[in-house]
Amino acid sequence: MSNELDLIQRVTQYIMTDVASAPPETPPAPDFPIIEGGLVDSLGLFKVIAFAEEEFQVRIAPEEIVFENFSTINAIVNLIRGKL
Predict the structure, then answer these.
(1) Domain limits, the chain
(2) Check whether domain 4-17+34-83 has CATH 1.10.1200, yes or no
(3) 41-50: per-residue pLDDT in tens?
(4) Beta carbons of 68 and 74 less than 8 angstroms apart
C-alpha cells in the first residue's frame, strides 16, 4: 500500500502533467483549492476520477463525486486512502 506522501506526489504529478491547462511552475500545496484556484475544471475532475480508479484500483461511487472529496489534493488522497 502506498504511503500518504507517495499518494500526494502521484496525484499532484498527474494533475500538473495531464489535467492542468496551465500548470503552475511549482507543484501546488496539498491544501491548495484546485477547483476554485482554476487548476482543475469540470473535465479535469473526471480525468482525476478516472486516474484514481485506474492507478489505485479503487471505485469511486457517483455519490462520492462531491466538491468536498475533490476540493484539494489532500481531499482526493483522503478519499483514495479510505478505499485502499
Answers:
(1) 4-17+34-83
(2) yes
(3) 999 999 999 9
(4) no
